[in-house]
Amino acid sequence: xxxxxxxxxxxxxxxxxxxxxxxxxxxxxxxxxxxxxxxxxxxxxxxxxxxxxxxxxxxxxxxxxxxxxxxxxxxxxxxxxxxxxxxxxxxxxxxxxxxxxxxxxxxxxxxxxxxxxxxxxxxxxxxxxxxxxxx
Length: 135
Hints:
The protein is mainly β and 135 residues long. It has strands at 2-6, 9-12, 17-21, 24-28, 35-38, 41-45, 50-61, 70-80, 85-96, 99-109, 114-124.
């Protein structure tokens, strides 16, 4: 996955980590939909190739092919750029098209277009636009 990250302030540390205030990450995976993640702070762990996004995290993925637009919110997410994976063990709310999901723990495999919520799941599901069941 290719990504770039920008923010209000970046502090780089000798252990090859960096802290960013008001980060915005733009991800452009080669074989899946692009997405943007915003939060109040982020820590980039270069040796382990991980990006930790903290406080008021918002992930947005535009509509792509037959996949609806997605918006997710949580207090923390972990981005694994090499795997095209986003995950959290915290509470998360997700909106895909008109459908809404809430739960604790999420695994989003963007390459496989798979979204899994781990526990305490509540869902309101609607058929995708253009499907035979949509009204």
